Amino acid sequence: MKLTDSVQFLKGVGPKSVENFHKLGIFTVQDLLLYFPFRYEDFASRSVFELVDGEKATIIGTVVTPANVQYYGFKRNRLSFKIKEGEAVVAVSFFNQPYLADKVEVGKEIAVYGKWEQAKQQLMGMKVVAQVSSPETGSNVNSRYGVDGLEPVYHLTAGMKQSQLVKVIHQVFESDLLSELPENLPEFLIKKYRLMNRQEAVLAMHFPEDMEAHKQALRRVKFEELFMFQLKLQALKNKEKSGRAGLEVVFEQGEIDQKISELPFELTGAQLSALSEILTDMKSPYHMNRLLQGDVGSGKTVVASLAMYAACLANFQAAIMVPTEILARQHFANLKALFPELQISLLVSGLKVAERREILADLVSGHTHMVVGTHALIQEGVDFYNLGLVITDEQHRFGVNQRKILREKGQNPDVLIMTATPIPRTLAITAFGDMDVSIIDELPKGRQPITTRWVKHEQFSEVLSWIKADVAKDSQVYFISPLIEESETLDLKNAEALFAELNEYFGLFAKIGLLHGKMKNDEKDQIMQEFKAKKLDILVSTTVIEVGVDVPNATIMVIMDADRFGISQLHQLRGRVGRGTKKSYAILVANPNSDSGKQRMKIMTETQNGFILAEEDLKMRGSGDIFGLRQSGLPEFIAADLVNDYNILEVARKEAVEIFKNADEFPDLIAQVIVDGGFD
């Protein structure tokens, strides 16, 4: 047999069971070897004197009473007998397994695995691990795959048994096919990180001699998985650079520096560093594919604006696509203020026909230098004269295809993706590994930290009285009403009830507005503009309150039933205040029932750093659906875990980058990665 042969040729794998193997993704003998268990049952024998209540263990003893089966109820029974281990006599019970009576013989030694019940001095049997003909002839319970070994437990599909799978895997090991499994890591990495070789690791993943052997095997397999994945990302990145000639955006750096000096504020070191990385990419002949991530309020927009300016200086057009009209209008106003000398257009749905026609004509003729738009930018009939830079803001709000359509409006323009959702570095280098990542992790000067407090519902009246005093000092306040079971109707009722309660409390003292998802875009826009223009003191909103909308005078954010939100959403909402120079507050009103709810409230009051919060969120929720990254093609790893194996991931990435830098030394490895990744 060969590793590439189908599992159907293995003994004990019939036509029916081969379908079950296929459901598990096992098609060949090699697939079977690499189908690792997810845990182990430890059948090492223990003395009853060492056990604590509730512990699972294997006890070896001599049977001292015959097996007795008692029947009660429909198909219910209990098998009981006693064994002697040293000086201790232990009662053993099995429920609904009467057939085990055949394995119980007085005077013979038996190994039983079960749960220890201290009070009854009884073992609730789960499995008869082994039988021995008699104590005198010696015990076979310490054989290779017996009591002293760790028995693997695999994920199965309906109609399969653990014993069947283990038997088939044994068969492959016994036929010595493992020796055909090729090593896939460079020798220098195995030595450098003291890794097991591949064949040893695969054997120890299935049948480790002890937990230390399993630990070393797991370390090797995790590194291999993450290293191979990072190699594929490097191959993809290299393909982007070599296969798709980018645009050389040539501009005068002095003009950019002049524009920076004219800004009404000073850029932070992190902003300047991110801008430098972006501009270097744009100048190069390679295609830029960069992710710009920055915490809430860190000033990503001005960095993106300066990149757009650089494109325009080089006689290219620049486009920025944002998820909502409110945000589009805000970007448009900011760009017009920054670059009064340029022709800037706003393309959103709902424009008058004549106005839209004029904007489209200006885009295709090259009269327009910059355009800000919503998804209206990617509609049919929107064409550019010479598109050189495409920016997508809050990229996770757009599908991959929407971003692709915008990119294809030009001749391979440079691409910059922005997100205000701090993605943990762990995920950024994995999910966006084919992109370069720039991070703005510093808040602009003059920004005061937002003080966050967690209060219970019983303290809400105190919160209202404190807010009343602050509104009297000209402060503006957001009240956020939570989403209930994702029902817009209930969501709206909830917001309306809060709106009514606040109107009753404040009366004529404060003007209160209501913003919710059922409103038309222009209605939402109007309410938001009124709030921005200080015509409203308090804004009650559902979660439609937009990321990035700037109201510098808003200093208090009250989030009702805050435990209904995830960490990242709470952090985004909190970022709506603290946009000016006044001291700002976020008040989380919640009576969480769960420990995770309490933990979320606690961590929100402890840090304002979005990256720390994102790491915590990742630890609490796992890497599955966090930030909607599943749509980015985040891989499912067999052994590796992106949160806990972050250090291995970093090392794997560093080594993969080095391999591609010295590609001539590793032609076979790179050729294999290119074929496996489908990049050939």
3D architecture notes:
- This protein is an alpha/beta fold and 680 residues long.
- Helix 6 packs across helix 21, helix 7 runs antiparallel to helix 9 (300-313) and helix 18 (595-606) runs antiparallel to helix 19 (610-621).
- The model is unreliable at 133-148 and 624-633 (pLDDT under 50).
- The protein is globular, with a radius of gyration of 32 Å.
- The chain contains 21 helices and 21 strands.
- Helix 11 links the parallel strand 11 (344-347) and strand 12.
- The longest helix is centred in the middle third of the chain and has 33 residues, at 211-243.
- The protein folds into five domains: 1-38 and 157-181, no CATH class; 44-148, Nucleic acid-binding proteins (OB fold (Dihydrolipoamide Acetyltransferase, E2P), Beta Barrel), CATH 2.40.50.140; 182-243 and 648-680, no CATH class; 253-440, Rossmann fold (3-Layer(aba) Sandwich); 451-607, Rossmann fold (3-Layer(aba) Sandwich), CATH 3.40.50.
- The protein has a seven-stranded parallel sheet, with helices on both faces. The protein has a six-stranded parallel sheet with strand order 16-21-20-17-19-18, sandwiched between helices. A five-stranded mixed barrel has the order 2-4-5-7-6.
- Residues 281-440 form the Helicase ATP-binding domain.
- Belongs to the helicase family. RecG subfamily.
- One of its GO terms (molecular function) is ATP binding.
- Keywords: ATP-binding, DNA damage, DNA recombination, DNA repair, DNA-binding, Helicase, Hydrolase, Isomerase, Nucleotide-binding.
- InterPro entries: ATP-dep_DNA_helicase_RecG (IPR004609), DEAD/DEAH_box_helicase_dom (IPR011545), Helicase_ATP-bd (IPR014001), Helicase_C-like (IPR001650), NA-bd_OB-fold (IPR012340), P-loop_NTPase (IPR027417), RecG/Mfd (IPR047112), RecG_dom3_C (IPR045562).
